Amino acid sequence: MIYIPYYNALALPDVSCYFQLDFLNGQSDQPVSAGDKVLFLMLKTEKEEGEIQAEDIFPIAVRGVVESIDNQWALVHTTNRVNLDSIQVTGKSFRLEMRMRPDIDDLDPDEKKERFQKMRAAMLQTFQGSQWMEGTRSQMLRWKNMNEIVTFTSPILRISNEEKYEILKEDSTAKRTELMEKAFYESLELYKVNSEAQSAQQETNEKLYREQAIRRQIDYLQKELDELHPENITEIRKFEQKIREAGMNETARAEAEKVLNRMKQEGQDSHEYGMLYDYLDFVTGLSWKKENAAEIDLDEARQVLDEDHFGLKKTKERIIQQIAVMALNKKQSGSILLFVGAPGTGKTSIGQSIAKALKRKYVRISLGGVRDEAEIRGHRRTYIGAMPGRIMDGIRRSGVSNPVVVLDEVDKLVRDYGGDPSSALLEVLDPEQNSTFTDHYMNVPYDLSDVLFVCTANRSDTIPEPLLNRMEEISFPGYSALEKFQIAKRHLLPKAMEKAGIGETDLAVSDEALKALISNYTMEAGVRGLKNRLDTLCRAAAVKIVRDGHQTVSVEPADLRGFLETAPIRHDHILEVKNPGIVTGLAWTQAGGEILFIETLFTKGEGKMTVTGQLGDVMKESAMIAVSLVKSMFPEQASLFEENDLHIHVPAGAVPKDGPSAGITLTTALASLVTGRAVSPEYAMTGEVSLRGVVMPIGGLPEKLMAAQRAGVTQVFIPEENVDDLADVAEEVREALTIVPVHYVTDVLRQVGILPQN
Ligand code: ADP
């Protein structure tokens, strides 16, 4: 008897299987020959032979006979199952007592056959084409029953040894067949699922190989193309190098390379080529490198600011604070300053000085009239003529990643069909978002977090709230005549002379001439007009110097008209004659402060009121309040309003005027009209008035007072609550004017002589 210890495999009766002769010989005492009996022992656990103990063996085994020996192979046929009643193991030898265990054959032979064939077909189909199948196909075709399939595949069936033993133990052939089918088909399904997963993996691998192959192919074709279009090569090589050296982030580099690849495929004459060229030119022209902040000496910074600009003390102090905070935080940007003031008050140019003080590059980006979001954020490249937005364009002009950017005229953004540019601007300015600002044209993020933004505006009330909230407002009230004189003398005139090529000794403009030029030829809060006048003057002087060979051209007040070729401005000078019903008011416009005249007149009629001079709704309401107030203060004259029509006019009708601050002027003008007492044109006033006659505070006081002084007013009435604002008013303006804070309208009426002085 040859014992065949089987672990993991299941031997069933009526199966023919081949064994290597060497293997069988190893199990028996003498060489194996045909007719020898064998016993298949099923093991519970894997064991080295010889170490097998009695308890390792399942108590049912299968007997067989060696049928034939063919070369190195022995064909064994199994016959029947036996119960192992006792098992003794000594070393390699087994002593067993066994008993036949007959099958109960309760399965119809036809059905048995049918189910066997089904199983074999399933097997053939599942393993079709597999290597394993090729080696065993001939054997499979020889199979006669299901036992053979299960015995043969038992080492790879996905069931435990105990379950295999359950099959062996089953006496009923019908039930055993069921058990075998269950084990077999389940294992087959598992195999299928596994192999599907495997082939999916294989597919991805194949895709990768394919991709690499295609890339190699593209490289090869590229070389061919290069040879066909040698003219493209230099540009392409140039961009290749630039992309490599630009220090772009991952995304940007990938995009640039993609564009470059497309460019390589285009001929130089194609429209596409131009677009791709522009794109690469733009992105590689940007600075992608992180710039180090320069060492800043606060005293030096202050000196730079002082050198470039006269006055502006508060602003300069605030800027120095900002620089200090940035140095402490080790950051290159900080809070966003918003400079608000009339044109020519130095907002933009001090922005430039900030850059100089920080030793950083400066760019100015004008936002005036921007109505399309794309102008901020760029056009998508699908557009013909697509362009980057103004922000990225500015950054590119600066050539660095940390410039000081002055965003000019943020109050002039227009919300339109093209989206909301201010929300795009919000993204630019928001430190939470701007490190990955994505311009649509570029289509890749750019880090704006090191950019120092400074905004300018003529007024802050038109700036959308969310934007305004992110900024720190600093107001530029404009300059007094004295400040303008200093600015002209120290900065504007020397610059104008230099621009016109005039040497220092060639032109002498007297202080009086400068002052006259300021007061008679300019009318503004800032110094832009003044600068233009000085430029004109220098150009005229240059002609004189060249033509007449003058040694030194000197300019006195009387010469101004000749040099400037214009008559002096008289526009906002106070009136010379006084008339009842006409009073001087003070207004604030985008150009700074201005004086205005309120004219009132009764005409024959029946109590109608006409208002002219482009007055806004608020100002019309002020007029109605003034009428009511005057009627109640002068009850005896109240009937005048019923018997006549009232006409209120504010000259300079081309300029729209609105706001409540003319209330006090309207009331005074009407009081003057009904009483027939004229008010001296040397008085001017500003303040909102309530129905009770209380004078309420107004804005823009510094600008208004400067305008009053410019126009030759001597006494100004202001709301009591505005007294604190006087600190912002230049000293010489305060000195030149008698400033009278008032609480009630009656205070004014008394002082101008309409009501008796107590
Ligand atoms: P804004 O931006 O407020 O319209 P700018 O900054 O363009 O005004 O100023 C107009 C001109 O006036 C510039 O040439 C500027 O150098 C000059 N300027 C304005 N304020 C001063 C000042 N305080 N000192 C010297 N020059 C000044």
TrEMBL record:
One Pfam assignment: AAA
GO biological process, one term: protein catabolic process
PROSITE patterns: LON_PROTEOLYTIC (PS51786), LON_SER (PS01046)
EC number annotated for this UniProt entry: 3.4.21.53
Claim: Protease is one of the keywords in the record: yes
MF term (GO), any: ATP-dependent peptidase activity
Catalytic residues of the enzyme: 661, 704
Residues annotated to bind ATP: 341-348
UniProt keyword Amino-acid biosynthesis, yes or no: no
Superkingdom per UniProt: Bacteria
Catalytic reaction(s) noted: Hydrolysis of proteins in presence of ATP
Keywords from the UniProt entry: ATP-binding, Hydrolase, Nucleotide-binding, Protease, Serine protease
Domain Lon proteolytic: from-to ranges: 577-755
Stated role: ATP-dependent serine protease that mediates the selective degradation of mutant and abnormal proteins as well as certain short-lived regulatory proteins. Required for cellular homeostasis and for survival from DNA damage and developmental changes induced by stress. Degrades polypeptides processively to yield small peptide fragments that are 5 to 10 amino acids long. Binds to DNA in a double-stranded, site-specific manner.
NCBIfam families, alphabetized: lon
Family designation: Belongs to the peptidase S16 family.
Protein name: endopeptidase La
